[in-house]
Amino acid sequence: MNTTTFETSRKTIHLMSLLVPVIAKYHLLSAQLLLVFFIVFYAFSEWKKVRRKYFFAHKLILRMQRDDEKTEFAKAPLLLATGILMAITFFTWEASLVGIYQAGFCDTVAALCGKKWGKTKIPFLSRKTYVGSLAFFIAAVPFTLLFLPPSKAIVVCLFGAFLESLPFKDWDNLSVPFFISLLADQFLIISY
User: Fold this and answer.
1) Which residues, including other chains, have CB under 8 Å from residue 117's CB and lie 6 or more apart?
2) What are phi and psi of 11, to 5 degrees?
């Protein structure tokens, strides 16, 4: 499997997260329960994998994991689900939608563009490229402009690209939906 195909299959979890705000819009508790179920299910599956007592979903999960994640507890999906759960629980629907969009869609765009066209790495960030960070920002702006005035939307998008570029492996899955939702929520409160 080539790098782009692998990254696309891996990012399906990110893209599936975009369904959560739709569910939350109509029934918040259902969205929260769905995320809690996923968190428990995934954590149990990873716990079994680390102990080499495979769970029925392990083959599907292993196909989406990098080589280093196949033998250790892979925390990225767990952090993403937790960040999204926190976003829909603590912030307005509009703010959480902005945060989840950046974590689900913009992170995917950044990864795919960075892998395909990113030649120059950002100094001190061995896995991040200028192209990927720019792609994140460009993907974030039009959607964020639906909810925030241009000056605030640019700040939120720059902050999202910054969080996604930090060298804390997988922790952007938690920080982007939470902190972008928090920032968007504050800007929305100020706007009203």
Assistant:
1) 131
2) -80, 0
DSSP label of 91:
S
Beta strands in 75-182 (DSSP E): 121-122, 125-129
Q: Give the type of residue at 112.
A: L
The pTM of this model reads 0.85
Task: Locate 24 and state its tokens.
Answer: 């939350």
Q: Residues 140-175: pLDDT tens digits?
A: 999 999 999 999 999 999 999 999 988 888 899 999
Instruction: Write out the E strands in the chain.
Output: 121-122, 125-129
User: Which of 138, 122, 142, 141 minimizes the C-alpha distance to 130?
Assistant: 122
Residues 6 or more apart whose CB falls under 8 angstroms from that of 142 comprise: none
The answer to whether 160 and 106 have CB atoms below 8 angstroms apart is yes
**CB under 8 Å to 162, separation ≥6 — which residues?**
none
Task: Count Cα atoms within 13 angstroms, Cβ side, for 110.
Answer: 28
